[in-house]
Amino acid sequence: MSTMRIFDIAGSAMAAQSARLNTVASNLANADSVSGDAQSVYRARMPMFQAQLDAANPESAGVRVLGIVESTAEAQKRYEPGHPLADAEGYVYAPNVNVVEEMVNMISASRSYQSSVEVMNTAKELAMRTLTLGK
Amino acid sequence: MAGTVDPLFGIHAQALQIQQRRMTLLAGNIANADTPGFQARDLDFKTALEQAMGNGSSTLNTDQAGHLDGAGTQADPALMYRVPLQPSVDGNTVDVQTEQAAFMDSALRYQASLSFLDGKLKSLLTAITGE
Protein backbone atom coordinates (compact mmCIF):
# COMPACT_ATOMS: atom_id res chain seq x y z
CA MET A 1 0.00 0.00 0.00
CA SER A 2 1.35 3.33 -0.98
CA THR A 3 0.67 5.30 2.22
CA MET A 4 3.07 2.94 3.91
CA ARG A 5 5.65 3.70 1.22
CA ILE A 6 6.03 7.20 2.69
CA PHE A 7 6.95 5.61 6.01
CA ASP A 8 9.57 3.46 4.27
CA ILE A 9 11.07 6.47 2.53
CA ALA A 10 11.10 8.73 5.58
CA GLY A 11 12.44 5.83 7.66
CA SER A 12 15.29 5.20 5.23
CA ALA A 13 16.18 8.89 5.36
CA MET A 14 16.19 8.87 9.15
CA ALA A 15 18.41 5.79 9.20
CA ALA A 16 20.83 7.36 6.72
CA GLN A 17 20.99 10.66 8.59
CA SER A 18 21.59 8.90 11.89
CA ALA A 19 24.45 6.96 10.29
CA ARG A 20 25.84 10.34 9.26
CA LEU A 21 25.43 11.66 12.81
CA ASN A 22 27.25 8.57 14.08
CA THR A 23 30.23 9.22 11.84
CA VAL A 24 30.28 12.86 12.96
CA ALA A 25 30.29 11.74 16.60
CA SER A 26 33.10 9.29 15.87
CA ASN A 27 35.12 11.94 14.05
CA LEU A 28 34.69 14.54 16.78
CA ALA A 29 35.48 12.03 19.51
CA ASN A 30 38.69 11.08 17.75
CA ALA A 31 39.71 14.58 16.71
CA ASP A 32 42.63 14.48 19.15
CA SER A 33 43.60 10.80 18.96
CA VAL A 34 47.22 11.26 17.95
CA SER A 35 49.43 8.50 16.67
CA GLY A 36 53.13 7.85 16.19
CA ASP A 37 52.96 7.30 12.43
CA ALA A 38 50.94 8.74 9.54
CA GLN A 39 49.50 5.36 8.48
CA SER A 40 47.84 4.19 11.67
CA VAL A 41 46.29 7.51 12.65
CA TYR A 42 42.49 7.83 12.72
CA ARG A 43 40.99 9.18 9.50
CA ALA A 44 37.78 11.16 9.21
CA ARG A 45 34.89 8.95 8.11
CA MET A 46 31.88 9.92 6.08
CA PRO A 47 28.89 8.04 4.73
CA MET A 48 28.10 7.85 1.02
CA PHE A 49 24.41 8.27 0.24
CA GLN A 50 22.66 6.75 -2.73
CA ALA A 51 19.07 6.95 -3.93
CA GLN A 52 17.36 3.61 -3.35
CA LEU A 53 15.10 2.87 -6.29
CA ASP A 54 12.53 0.16 -5.84
CA ALA A 55 11.68 -1.88 -8.95
CA ALA A 56 8.04 -2.15 -7.86
CA ASN A 57 7.73 1.62 -7.32
CA PRO A 58 10.14 3.29 -9.74
CA GLU A 59 8.68 6.72 -8.98
CA SER A 60 9.73 7.16 -5.42
CA ALA A 61 13.17 6.76 -4.03
CA GLY A 62 14.34 6.18 -0.50
CA VAL A 63 17.96 6.66 0.47
CA ARG A 64 20.56 4.22 1.65
CA VAL A 65 24.08 4.38 2.97
CA LEU A 66 26.26 2.83 0.31
CA GLY A 67 29.21 2.61 2.65
CA ILE A 68 31.45 4.53 4.97
CA VAL A 69 34.54 6.00 3.32
CA GLU A 70 37.63 7.44 4.95
CA SER A 71 38.95 10.85 4.05
CA THR A 72 42.18 10.76 2.04
CA ALA A 73 43.38 14.14 3.33
CA GLU A 74 46.85 14.25 4.86
CA ALA A 75 47.17 13.66 8.60
CA GLN A 76 48.31 16.71 10.54
CA LYS A 77 51.98 16.50 11.49
CA ARG A 78 52.89 18.13 14.78
CA TYR A 79 56.32 18.57 16.29
CA GLU A 80 56.05 17.37 19.87
CA PRO A 81 59.33 15.71 20.86
CA GLY A 82 58.19 15.29 24.47
CA HIS A 83 55.15 13.22 23.50
CA PRO A 84 55.44 9.52 24.42
CA LEU A 85 54.09 8.52 20.97
CA ALA A 86 56.45 10.79 19.02
CA ASP A 87 58.50 9.14 16.24
CA ALA A 88 62.28 9.27 15.92
CA GLU A 89 62.19 12.83 14.54
CA GLY A 90 59.86 14.04 17.30
CA TYR A 91 56.63 14.21 15.30
CA VAL A 92 53.16 12.98 16.23
CA TYR A 93 50.32 12.66 13.74
CA ALA A 94 46.84 14.02 14.47
CA PRO A 95 43.72 12.90 12.54
CA ASN A 96 42.65 14.79 9.42
CA VAL A 97 39.37 15.68 11.12
CA ASN A 98 38.17 19.20 10.39
CA VAL A 99 36.13 20.09 13.46
CA VAL A 100 34.29 23.00 11.82
CA GLU A 101 33.31 20.80 8.88
CA GLU A 102 32.05 18.15 11.27
CA MET A 103 29.91 20.63 13.17
CA VAL A 104 28.35 21.82 9.91
CA ASN A 105 27.75 18.20 8.92
CA MET A 106 26.08 17.59 12.25
CA ILE A 107 23.69 20.52 11.86
CA SER A 108 22.85 19.51 8.30
CA ALA A 109 22.20 15.90 9.33
CA SER A 110 20.01 16.96 12.23
CA ARG A 111 17.96 19.31 10.01
CA SER A 112 17.45 16.59 7.41
CA TYR A 113 16.44 14.15 10.14
CA GLN A 114 13.88 16.67 11.42
CA SER A 115 12.44 17.09 7.91
CA SER A 116 11.91 13.35 7.67
CA VAL A 117 10.26 13.23 11.09
CA GLU A 118 7.92 15.98 9.94
CA VAL A 119 7.07 14.05 6.77
CA MET A 120 6.38 10.94 8.80
CA ASN A 121 4.16 12.81 11.25
CA THR A 122 2.10 14.32 8.45
CA ALA A 123 1.74 10.94 6.73
CA LYS A 124 0.66 9.36 10.00
CA GLU A 125 -1.93 12.04 10.64
CA LEU A 126 -3.37 11.70 7.14
CA ALA A 127 -3.49 7.93 7.43
CA MET A 128 -5.29 8.21 10.76
CA ARG A 129 -7.81 10.63 9.31
CA THR A 130 -8.39 8.35 6.35
CA LEU A 131 -9.01 5.45 8.69
CA THR A 132 -11.65 7.37 10.62
CA LEU A 133 -13.44 8.47 7.43
CA GLY A 134 -17.21 8.62 7.98
CA LYS A 135 -17.05 8.21 11.75
CA MET B 1 -15.82 3.15 -12.13
CA ALA B 2 -12.57 4.12 -13.76
CA GLY B 3 -12.80 6.85 -16.35
CA THR B 4 -16.04 8.39 -15.13
CA VAL B 5 -16.94 10.84 -12.43
CA ASP B 6 -18.44 8.93 -9.56
CA PRO B 7 -21.98 10.30 -8.99
CA LEU B 8 -21.58 10.30 -5.25
CA PHE B 9 -17.95 11.00 -4.49
CA GLY B 10 -17.03 13.05 -7.54
CA ILE B 11 -13.35 13.34 -8.28
CA HIS B 12 -12.28 13.09 -4.67
CA ALA B 13 -11.38 9.40 -4.67
CA GLN B 14 -9.00 9.96 -7.59
CA ALA B 15 -7.76 13.22 -6.05
CA LEU B 16 -6.82 11.38 -2.85
CA GLN B 17 -4.84 8.80 -4.79
CA ILE B 18 -3.01 11.42 -6.81
CA GLN B 19 -2.17 13.52 -3.74
CA GLN B 20 -0.88 10.40 -2.04
CA ARG B 21 1.29 9.59 -5.04
CA ARG B 22 2.57 13.16 -5.02
CA MET B 23 3.37 13.03 -1.31
CA THR B 24 5.28 9.78 -1.80
CA LEU B 25 7.35 11.45 -4.52
CA LEU B 26 8.00 14.52 -2.37
CA ALA B 27 8.95 12.33 0.60
CA GLY B 28 11.50 10.69 -1.70
CA ASN B 29 12.86 14.12 -2.64
CA ILE B 30 13.19 15.16 1.00
CA ALA B 31 14.81 11.84 1.88
CA ASN B 32 17.40 12.38 -0.86
CA ALA B 33 18.16 15.99 0.03
CA ASP B 34 21.80 15.03 0.70
CA THR B 35 22.28 12.43 -2.04
CA PRO B 36 24.79 13.58 -4.66
CA GLY B 37 23.34 13.71 -8.18
CA PHE B 38 19.75 13.12 -7.11
CA GLN B 39 17.19 14.93 -9.26
CA ALA B 40 13.98 16.01 -7.60
CA ARG B 41 10.69 15.16 -9.29
CA ASP B 42 7.16 16.34 -8.88
CA LEU B 43 3.74 15.44 -10.17
CA ASP B 44 1.52 17.79 -12.16
CA PHE B 45 -1.88 17.37 -10.52
CA LYS B 46 -3.92 18.50 -13.54
CA THR B 47 -2.27 16.08 -15.95
CA ALA B 48 -2.39 13.25 -13.44
CA LEU B 49 -6.10 13.85 -12.77
CA GLU B 50 -6.86 13.96 -16.50
CA GLN B 51 -5.05 10.66 -16.84
CA ALA B 52 -6.96 9.17 -13.94
CA MET B 53 -10.27 10.33 -15.44
CA GLY B 54 -9.28 8.76 -18.75
CA ASN B 55 -9.31 12.06 -20.66
CA GLY B 56 -5.62 12.55 -20.97
CA SER B 57 -4.43 10.77 -24.07
CA SER B 58 -0.86 9.69 -23.88
CA THR B 59 -1.01 7.70 -27.11
CA LEU B 60 -0.35 8.82 -30.66
CA ASN B 61 -3.10 8.98 -33.25
CA THR B 62 -2.99 6.21 -35.83
CA ASP B 63 -4.64 6.09 -39.24
CA GLN B 64 -2.75 3.22 -40.83
CA ALA B 65 -2.60 -0.40 -39.76
CA GLY B 66 1.18 -0.29 -39.41
CA HIS B 67 1.28 2.75 -37.14
CA LEU B 68 2.32 2.40 -33.56
CA ASP B 69 0.28 4.23 -30.95
CA GLY B 70 3.28 4.56 -28.68
CA ALA B 71 1.36 3.31 -25.66
CA GLY B 72 3.62 2.20 -22.87
CA THR B 73 6.71 3.69 -24.47
CA GLN B 74 6.36 7.24 -23.17
CA ALA B 75 7.33 8.40 -19.77
CA ASP B 76 4.47 9.49 -17.54
CA PRO B 77 3.55 13.00 -18.76
CA ALA B 78 2.44 14.06 -15.29
CA LEU B 79 5.83 13.27 -13.80
CA MET B 80 8.35 16.06 -14.21
CA TYR B 81 11.81 17.01 -13.00
CA ARG B 82 12.03 20.01 -10.75
CA VAL B 83 13.91 23.05 -12.08
CA PRO B 84 16.26 23.91 -9.21
CA LEU B 85 16.32 27.44 -7.83
CA GLN B 86 19.81 27.02 -6.45
CA PRO B 87 21.61 24.13 -8.17
CA SER B 88 24.32 22.58 -6.04
CA VAL B 89 27.80 21.52 -7.08
CA ASP B 90 27.16 17.81 -6.50
CA GLY B 91 24.28 17.73 -9.02
CA ASN B 92 21.55 17.45 -6.43
CA THR B 93 18.46 19.46 -7.40
CA VAL B 94 16.50 19.08 -4.15
CA ASP B 95 15.56 22.35 -2.52
CA VAL B 96 14.32 21.23 0.88
CA GLN B 97 12.23 24.34 1.55
CA THR B 98 10.43 24.01 -1.79
CA GLU B 99 9.83 20.32 -1.19
CA GLN B 100 8.52 20.90 2.32
CA ALA B 101 6.15 23.60 1.07
CA ALA B 102 4.91 21.33 -1.71
CA PHE B 103 4.48 18.46 0.74
CA MET B 104 2.47 20.67 3.07
CA ASP B 105 0.34 21.87 0.15
CA SER B 106 -0.30 18.30 -0.94
CA ALA B 107 -1.18 17.22 2.60
CA LEU B 108 -3.65 20.10 2.92
CA ARG B 109 -5.32 19.23 -0.37
CA TYR B 110 -5.49 15.61 0.72
CA GLN B 111 -7.25 16.74 3.89
CA ALA B 112 -9.64 18.88 1.87
CA SER B 113 -10.61 15.89 -0.27
CA LEU B 114 -10.98 13.82 2.89
CA SER B 115 -13.34 16.43 4.35
CA PHE B 116 -15.47 16.37 1.22
CA LEU B 117 -15.65 12.58 1.32
CA ASP B 118 -16.40 12.66 5.02
CA GLY B 119 -19.28 15.09 4.48
CA LYS B 120 -20.72 12.91 1.73
CA LEU B 121 -20.49 9.81 3.88
CA LYS B 122 -22.07 11.55 6.85
CA SER B 123 -25.00 12.82 4.80
CA LEU B 124 -25.45 9.34 3.34
CA LEU B 125 -25.54 7.90 6.84
CA THR B 126 -28.12 10.50 7.83
CA ALA B 127 -30.23 9.51 4.85
CA ILE B 128 -29.95 5.81 5.68
CA THR B 129 -30.57 5.97 9.41
CA GLY B 130 -32.93 8.94 9.31
CA GLU B 131 -31.44 10.39 12.47
User: What's the number of extended β-strand segments of chain A?
Assistant: 4
How do the strands line up in the largest sheet of chain B? 1-2
Counting DSSP E segments of at least 2 residues, the number of strands of chain B comes to 2
Distance between the termini of chain A: 22 Å
Strand content of chain A: 15-25%
Q: Helical residue percent of chain A?
A: 40-55%
Sheet with the most strands of chain A?
2 strands, antiparallel
Low-confidence runs of at least 5 consecutive residues of chain A: none
Radius of gyration of CA atoms of chain B, rounded to a whole number: 19 Å
- For the largest interface in this structure, which chains are involved and how many residues does each contribute? A-B, 35 and 32 residues
Q: What are the segments of chain B in which pLDDT stays under 50 over at least 5 consecutive residues?
A: none
Can you walk me through this structure?
The complex is a heterodimer of chains A (135) and B (131). Chain A is an alpha+beta fold and 135 residues long. Helix content of chain A is 45%, strand content 20%. Chain A is built from 2 helices and 4 strands, in the order H-E-E-E-E-H. Chain A has helices at residues 2-29, 99-131; strands at residues 45-53, 61-70, 76-79, 91-94. In chain A, the strands form 2 sheets. Chain A has a two-stranded antiparallel ribbon. In chain A, helix 1 runs antiparallel to helix 2 (99-131). In chain A, 27% of the residues are buried. With 131 residues, chain B is mainly alpha-helical. The mean pLDDT of chain B is 85. A two-stranded antiparallel ribbon of chain B has the order 1-2. Chain B is built from 3 helices and 2 strands; from the N terminus they run H-E-H-E-H. Chain B has helices at 12-31, 45-53, 96-129, and strands at 41-43, 79-81. Helices cover 48% and strands 5% of the residues of chain B. The interface between A and B is medium-sized, with 35 and 32 residues.
